[in-house]
Structures are given as C-alpha cells and as structure tokens.
Design a protein that fits this description.
This protein has about 200 residues and is of the alpha+beta class. The chain folds into 2 domains: about 35 residues, no CATH class; about 110 residues, Heat Shock Protein 90 (2-Layer Sandwich), CATH 3.30.565. It has 4 helices and 9 strands, in the order ββββααβαββαββ. The strands form 4 sheets. It has a 3-stranded mixed sheet, with no helix packed on it. The longest helix has about 35 residues. It is elongated and about 105 Å long.
Amino acid sequence: PLRGKNGKFRWFLSRALPIHDKDGQIEMWFGTNTDVTEQKQREEQIQLLLGEVNHRAKNMLTLVQAIARQTMASGDNFMDRFAERMRSLASSQDLLVSSGWRGARVEDIMNSQLAHLEDFIGTRIKLEGPHVRLTSAAAQSLGMALHELATNAGKYGALSNDTGQVDIRWNIRQEEGTNRFEISWTESGGPPVIAP
C-alpha cells in the first residue's frame, strides 16, 4: 500500500515497462498505478464471509449429526422422524438467513415451528409473551424444542384429541444483571398420561 496526501493508505496495482536507449540501457520507465483499494477491501470481505460460511457449515453438520444420533436411538421410523426434524431445522435456518443471522423473534419461531398446527393457534394453542429477539443459537434450540413438543402433543398429548389445549408463555427474567429467557409449555385436556 501507498500513503496518500491525506495520510491514509491505499492499495495500488503498479505496472511498468522499461524504455531502452539505442545502446540497450534503461533510459526511463513507463508505467501506470491503478487504485485497487476497493477491490482489495471486497476481497477481504469475501474471505471473511467464506470463513463465516465455513464455520456455520461445520456447526450445522455437527448439529445434523447429533439429530441423526438422537433420532436413531429413539426407535423405529428413523427416516420419517429424521426428515421431520430436518424440516424443523430448515425452518429455523430460513428465519435466521432472512434476518442476516441476527437472531429471530420468538413469535416468528413459534409461527414457523407450529405452521402445521396453524388452525389451532388462537383456539387450542394459546401464545403469550413479549416481543423478544433471540440469538441465532437460542433460536435454533427453541425451534427444535418446539418441534419436539408439538410432535409429542399431536401424537400423545393435548393435541391428540379434540378437546386438549396447549398454553405457551414466555418472558424475560432478570437474574444477577443478566436477561434470562423463560418459556413454559402447558398441556391440558389431553388423554390420561400413561407411564412408559
């Protein structure tokens, strides 16, 4: 880089050709300097983004691996259950990508993960809580938890009959100067609980 009159450094692409005299000695140089500072900054930004994409891809693969292990350990119908969990994860990813990985609002996570139950929202599923934006990691975790709870409620719990209700409430609690996100999922009116 070269320092300009204003004291700031700029990147230049320099090209030069020697001009020879009749004896073959270099008499002068003919050249150009092209300011490529913006191009250099774009290249650095691309490298930074590639590093971030690589990091996120590795994290995603680790998460998919963990979901596969958990799904496999829980019994039959592996492919169906794994595909459902991958759809849940994809829904969370869509929210995070659309926010530029700045997290997601709890309401959006709820609507995304409970989309297959949207006819029940407001009637059999009650949602209540303040407007809260969660970090990307917290949004993914909440998305997976909601998917699992909704699946279980639909198969075995309050949403497996015609009268059950699910009450989902969330809040932010101050604890030792730190904000803590709390959520409760309460089912009522479902079939009797049978011990495993």
